[in-house]
Design a protein that fits this description.
heterodimer; A: alpha+beta; 5-stranded mixed sheet; 4 helices; 45% helix; B: alpha+beta; 7 helices; 53% helix
């Protein structure tokens, strides 16, 4: 059975990024469980080719911890959460808050051994780091394309603005967009070029 | 140019080959960069071999790479990364996640803690890369651990003899010693018995109250 997916779309300049998540149940697994997967699609205006990358976000049985008819609703909530978390991480990367991003990744994937607090086995550590690496690869691709898009926008508009400032502002917008539950699309292309920005 | 260095670890039915490959990369008809790849080839007796790999290092062409020392330089790079992988595998067996974390971090600098203004592109790229290494390590570690568990070491009498020493820790130490010695082939079973017996002897001596050294 296909469970509902969630997606959010971000546009900056000629770049459109679609972040989509879906929870999949493992067929015939005992105990029952599933995986939430994230797919990032990058599109450029006027180009037919697109980049599509997928990575597992997390393994969870949360959508199954309810009455069977409620599972699709829970699965959708899980997918929405994954999309929002991914956008938040993208926002943190754009605002250069690397320590914040690292800590949130560590919180999600638990790959940092902490003496007396989190004693990990080698295999737990490796699998956590592997999962974090997979999702960071998606982040890296989305992030670098957004970075190129900000520079391309500055060049195209002959804007006397600092590309870094635009990137940081884009990151802040993304952080806010990740908090909005009902919004599905946001165009972050600056509408006016402020020479003093 | 392409140079390969191989390290073979044999344990029971499993032959694990760690292959470091250094190669130059081409762009627009010119030799512009270099890349070192580490591949772990898993071969169980009677089954088809399969492998997992990762890119250990890549960048612009080193001055050594273009000259007559290229082959030596490439062999050294391939050997270095293959040995590093064996050391990490040894740390997995020792179940020392902290040491593994620190060693991976000092090789790939993926932890932004204590670093001044780490860039997002840099940190994300390093984390993504180290994730692939972790995946390769986890797969290889599981295969070799399965081979150890299926071997004579886990037969009742041997298990009883060696378990108090920490079987996997001894395996880890054998792998580390092999990596440090720079040999080409390791009979893990023989190395295990040798090291375990040496440890038992030391234990007996110290139990008698006589100083080991």
């Amino acid at each position: 059975m296909e469970y509902p997916c969630a997606e959010k779309c971000v546009k900056f300049g000629d770049l459109t990024i679609v972040v989509r998540a879906q929870w999949h149940r493992w067929p015939g697994s005992e105990p029952p469980g599933g995986t939430t997967e994230i797919t990032v699609t990058l599109m450029r205006d006027g180009m037919e080719t697109r980049i599509v990358k997928t990575a597992p976000f997390r393994k969870t049985d949360i959508p199954l911890r309810c009455l069977p008819h409620e599972t699709p609703r829970y699965a959708e909530a899980e997918a929405k959460r994954a999309v929002n978390v991914f956008l938040r991480w993208l926002g943190l990367a754009l605002t250069d808050d690397m320590w914040g991003l690292f800590m949130e990744l560590d919180d999600a994937y638990r790959f940092r051994p902490i003496e007396d607090l989190r004693e990990l086995t080698a295999l737990d550590f490796l699998s956590g780091l592997r999962d974090a690496g997979r999702i960071v690869e998606l982040l890296f691709i989305a992030f670098t394309h957004l970075l190129c898009a900000t520079h391309a926008w500055c060049l195209r508009n002959n804007a006397e603005v600092d590309a870094t400032a635009i990137r940081v502002r884009l990151g802040e917008w993304l952080l806010a967009f990740a908090e909005e539950n009902n919004a599905r699309f946001a165009d972050f292309t600056p509408k006016e070029v402020n020479a003093n920005a | 140019m392409r140079v390969k260095e191989r390290k073979v670890v044999k344990m029971g039915d499993l032959t694990l080959t760690i292959e470091g490959t250094w190669m130059t990369t081409w762009k627009d008809g010119m030799e512009r960069g270099e890349e070192t790849r580490v591949r772990a080839i898993v071969h169980w007796a009677g089954e088809k071999a399969w492998s997992v790999s990762y890119i250990a290092d890549e960048g612009t062409l080193s001055p050594y790479a273009g000259g007559e020392l290229a082959r030596q330089y490439g062999a050294a790079m391939a050997d270095r990364h293959a040995r590093q992988f064996l050391r990490w595998l040894g740390l997995c067996f020792k179940d020392d996640a902290s040491a593994l974390f620190n060693s991976l971090d000092s090789a790939y600098l993926f932890n932004p803690e204590y670093r001044q203004r780490p860039g997002a592109v840099d940190t994300c790229w390093r984390l993504a890369r180290v994730g692939v290494i972790a995946s390769t390590l986890a797969i290889t570690f599981n295969q070799l651990r399965a081979a150890v568990c299926k071997s004579f070491v886990f037969e009742a009498a041997n298990y009883k003899r060696y378990a108090p020493l920490g079987i996997f820790a001894i395996v880890g130490e054998c792998l580390r010693n092999f990596a440090n010695a720079g040999g080409k082939e390791l009979d893990l079973a023989a190395a295990f018995v040798e090291l375990a017996e040496q440890r038992l002897k030391e234990k007996e001596v110290s139990a008698d109250g006589v100083s080991v050294r």
